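Let's study today's protein:

:::
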Amino acid sequence: MTRAKVIRYEDNPNLFNVVNEVVIASGLPMPKVAIVNDPAPNAFATGRNPENALIAFTTGLLESMDRDELQGVTAHEMAHVANRDTLVSAVAATTAGAIAIVSDMLTRMMFFGGRRDREGGGNPIALVISLIILILAPLAAMMLRSAISRKRESLADATAVSFTRNPAGLRSALEVLASDSTVVQQRSTAVAHIWIESPLDSKSVSKLFSTHPPIAERIAVLKSMESLG
């Protein structure tokens, strides 16, 4: 979906050297490395476990960031691998889907039960309750999934700093992302949560449904880490 293509060491030795530095610092296995041909700066990680991980970078990110910034982004993506966030996201998505299915089943049960009551002269309270469930349950499921995703992004930032001991690198990388208005071409909601910066328009998405914390808040947290260090 992202059109990422796996590359070898010979294709980009400098990138592999940066990834290898983070691999050594984190103690994780070497992931597959991929490139997305896209001018927007962004990156993501995927894989069900550290032994089957892949991290990808857009050409725009590689062109716009210096070595420290690239190391910070790499550490963030490797943090997702270390924290098994692909698995966590899958569980969250499954849970959200289960909530939606259960709410649909309850709605149908209450609707048909309420219709029988109306035919028998009962009141339509069951129908009203079923409509409320129909509306609120999917929203609750989406909010749950988004909240988990935001927490994992914040955790990945913190874990990345523990790998590099350099919060300024990731902070500077996020500032580059914040100042760039371009977004990746593959901006499907199905994969929006895996990018280091959401490709969806943050102005049109409520914070409750956003998959990422506001980038300004992430930068502020990293600045506070710098001052402590």
